[in-house]
Amino acid sequence: MDCYKQSQDSKTAILIARGRCLSCTGSTMDTILVSQCIREKLESSSMPVCASVAAMSDDPIREWILSEGKATQIRGISPIGGGCINRATRYDTDAGSFFVKTNRSIGPSMFEGESLGLNAMYQTGSIRVPKPYKVGSLPTGGSYIIMEFIEFGASRGNQHSDILPFTAFQSALGRKLAEMHKAAKSEKGFGFHVENTIGSTPQINTWTADWIEFYAEHRLGYQLKLAREQYGDSTIYERGQRLAKNLGPLFRNVVIEPCLLHGDLWSGNITYDKNGEPVILDPACYYGHNEAEFGMSWCAGFGGDFYKAYFQVMPEQPGFEQRRDLYMLYHYLNHYNLFGSGYRSSAMSIIDDYLRLLNV
């Protein structure tokens, strides 16, 4: 779960690349960074800019910036530490700034999924996201993504500032998110063009005509299988599968269209630009039921102003409140698989509540 954050000293947007988040309380998520990552940050931060530029003379990132990026001069390269999976860097040029993430051990498929998601959201012209420019392979192994660098008006996850009152920001976020859901639909059904990741967990996006089938198999079912394989947790697997096979009654009289979803909308992936406009980041995009977007609401800080503005554009459907926990379940299961048993009880409680409700 990549985390944009604003540097307190330079007031520029930085990105903490895919740190594993241990817990989420309120609107913040504590990130544990191992000592090796801290050492890498300190070492990279002390590298002279001129040395960085010289060392990258044959780097495809630099080559793209100086050709397709319309720059004639790279004025500075600023390593941004904090990530244990991806390394983030800001390139300042005479054509503006670029944001770059690199990974020395993983091929371009992960960044391709991110790029396709960002581009799909960008094309709606609704809510602001960083525009992706280029994904490629590094000559020494690994991959990179180049994207727009956005100057933020706050640190990532901070929805309070002098630029925009909190209630106004919540309303703008709800309205623009609904506009994205309304604008972007898929004729192929539910899924996405490629598999991507939710955190570091693979997210299966096989095109499926029926939403209930898609959610039962590729969201709940996949996470339940991971829990059984990883922890030998046959209890949560068996009860969860029983729920997944009996979801139909929860969707009576509901019109479901495949809307473009951000897919991982928690507070750390929400901020605003220097003009006060909402910005959402680091997606796990797919086309799904619009209500599934609220699956991380337990860690997003959505308030009444957000939902009021959202439902003015995308009207609330019958049974929404009854389905809310169903969509949270996917993310609780993912957190269980990523971060351990601290999330098991929440997932198990939701499963048992639905089994009682459905009498199955």
UniProtKB/TrEMBL annotation:
One of its GO terms (molecular function) is protein-ribulosamine 3-kinase activity. Signal peptide: none annotated. GO terms for cellular component: cytoplasm. It holds the Pfam family Fructosamin_kin. It comes from the Eukaryota. It catalyses: N(6)-D-ribulosyl-L-lysyl-[protein] + ATP = N(6)-(3-O-phospho-D-ribulosyl)-L-lysyl-[protein] + ADP + H(+); N(6)-(D-erythrulosyl)-L-lysyl-[protein] + ATP = N(6)-(3-O-phospho-D-erythrulosyl)-L-lysyl-[protein] + ADP + H(+). Belongs to the fructosamine kinase family. This is Protein-ribulosamine 3-kinase, chloroplastic. It comes from Nicotiana tabacum.
